[in-house]
Amino acid sequence: MKESIYAIQQAVDELDIDGIQDKVKACIEEGISPFEIIEEGISKGLEIVGQKFEEGEYFLADLILAGEVVHEAMPLLEDKMDPSLIGKKGKIILATVQGDIHEIGKNIVGMLLKANGFEILDLGVDVPASKIIETAKISGARMIGLSALLTTMVTSIKDVVDIATESGLRDQLKIVIGGACTSEQLKDEMGADAYGATAVQAVSIFDGLSQAL
């Protein structure tokens, strides 16, 4: 692994919000592509942060700070991305479900998906199911990513699935769920199409779905 890419991983892992931009600039100056910086540096760094969270070494505040570190890095990378590639793989609607206001995970997923050629329609947090499906109707987007961190709000996922069914769009849509309280079992219970445990996994899931549509 290139030393400069490893430095990006470390910056994310060590929550180095002050140093991340200089490390990204160093990679860009070396001629490393934005995609490689995101895939091998930022995404791998986030995986380490996620592991530390699961093991109790990091806490929610650390996850939030890791999200801020990534947020600092992304404008530099977006400036170097080929505009003709953004949106090439299709549109994805992202939203944190109604009743939940957490957005760090959703935002990171959105950044990674955009970097991988998707057009992102981010509806924000606490989004009613009706608005999500209405956006799908208007925009023509056929993929939806739903984030839920609070266990008490998981029924909002079912609301999206139900309204999609009632509106006659369910067969045309692929609904993916993610977030701390979600699981493969919950995906089946709510009637969603896929579950992503990590932001990096979300990219491969949507890549697969886009090819199947």
CATH superfamily membership of the largest domain? Cobalamin-binding domain
Average residue-wise pLDDT? 91
Number of domains as seen in the coordinates:
2
CATH architecture classification of the largest domain: 3-Layer(aba) Sandwich
State the separation between the terminal residues, measured CA to CA. Answer: 35 Å
Multimerization state:
single chain
- As a percent range, the share of strand residues is 5-15%
Low-confidence stretches: none
Characterise this structure.
- The protein is of the alpha/beta class and 213 residues long.
- The chain folds into two domains: 3-78, Methionine synthase domain (Methyltransferase, Methionine Synthase (B12-binding Domains), Chain A, domain 1), CATH 1.10.1240; 91-212, 3-Layer(aba) Sandwich (Rossmann fold), CATH 3.40.50.
- The chain is built from nine helices and five strands, in the order ααααβαβαβαβαβα.
- It has helices spanning 3-13, 20-29, 34-54, 60-78, 104-115, 129-139, 155-166, 184-190, 199-212; strands at 91-96, 119-122, 143-147, 174-178, 194-196.
- The chain has a five-stranded parallel sheet, with helices on both faces.
- Strand 4, helix 8 (184-190) and strand 5 form a beta-alpha-beta unit.
- Helix 1 runs antiparallel to helix 2 (20-29) and helix 4 runs parallel beside helix 5.
- The termini are far apart.
- The mean pLDDT is 91.
